[in-house]
Amino acid sequence: MENLIATQSPEHTAQLGAFRAEVIINSPGRVNLIGEHTDYNNGFVMPTAIDKTIQFHLKKNGTTSQCRINSLNYNTSYTYDLHKATTDDAEWTHYIIGVTEEIKKLGKTLAGFDCMMYSNLPMGAGISSSAALECGLAKGLNELFDLGLTDLEIIKLSQMAEHNYVGTKCGIMDQFASVMSKENHVIQLDCESLDYKLLPFAIEPYKLLLLNTNVSHSLSTSEYNVRRAECEAGVSLLQKWYPEISSLRDVTLEQLQKHQDAFEPVVFKRCEYVLEENQRVEAAAKALKEENLEEFGKLMYGSHEGLQHKYEVSCKELDFLTDFSKNHDAVLGCRMMGGGFGGCTINLIHEDEILAYIEAAEKAYRKEFNIKLTAFTAMPANGGKRIQ
Ligand code: GAF
């Protein structure tokens, strides 16, 4: 198995040591077991943070507004003034500016700071390095400047940073998972009320294996926002018959299907997928409680099928890996994960077969696409934490 985890070089360790941080935060990425594109429809999701993080080393620098951010992995840095933030620079800086701007909107006072980031979380793999970045910085600044923000405020301001400064109208799942997760558990989150349950995640002898397609098709941001708009169009139409509803969460599949003829076919299938996926999340929670992993796996395949054909956010590389898994008994379930158009599949696989399976999948994937597949296992881990 390729080790995707960046190990800290002695040089990085020395740089971090010499930096003398006042605050250090570990901020994790996430996986989502099931419940895709349901969060912004006020539906259900089942994510958890994983044991791969961005670490933030922070200290005040004595200025009123100069901020200096260093990324050790990418050997790059960014300096800006809190009073003159713009989104003219590289895209990763929009997340940073987004966080400080959203903190300011809450009436909190920041001052100049220096930050070093070190990460073992693969970027652009659909495991939410963005939420790890936003929530980790927000949490770090909260501690450094004693801002008194609650976890929920950190989650929401991070989501708004992404809406307003990155341009993805994301739901709340990734930020929620990055902050609220608990080791050895998955979260069953109701994205309407934000009520959640921590479900014990004991799946031995199975494991979660992520296979990274190493493709990231450029459609991801634009199509994401289009899907959101299509669902909103579906809600507007449904309000003709059900004026009290405000999201797809408020209608049943039967109510939707009753009015199929009035819908544009594309909008109908988007809405139908969302309602079916909500049902799958509830069924998956039941299967997990009953330790029925076969059933859980089937639901994962059902989710992929819906994302591929009804929601149309998959891509040929993700479909290939999902189909490939169906010929291997060791894999109980597989599906694309996250926003789609690239990134990882998540596989529920017997631990004894992991290495052989990766080897076979790598070979087949290379033959088909001439792209190197990368693989790593993920464990449910705690949400973001101050470690110093
Ligand atoms: C991305 C978004 F950020 C999430 O809010 C969620 O909608 C996900 O895509 C799809 O389930 O990760």
Automatic annotation (TrEMBL):
Domain GHMP kinase N-terminal, first and last residues per copy = 95-181
Gene3D superfamilies registered for this protein in UniProt: 3.30.230.10, GHMP kinase, C-terminal domain (3.30.70.890)
* Keyword terms of this UniProt record: ATP-binding, Carbohydrate metabolism, Cytoplasm, Galactose metabolism, Kinase, Magnesium, Metal-binding, Nucleotide-binding, Transferase
What is stated as this protein's family in its record?
Answer: Belongs to the GHMP kinase family. GalK subfamily.
Species lineage: Bacteria, Pseudomonadati, Bacteroidota, Flavobacteriia, Flavobacteriales
Protein species of origin: Leeuwenhoekiella blandensis (strain CECT 7118 / CCUG 51940 / KCTC 22103 / MED217)
Enzyme class (EC, first level): transferase
Q: Which Gene Ontology molecular function entries are recorded, alphabetically?
A: ATP binding; galactokinase activity; metal ion binding
Top-rank taxon of the source lineage equals Bacteria
- List cellular component terms (GO): cytosol
| Name of this chain's protein | Galactokinase
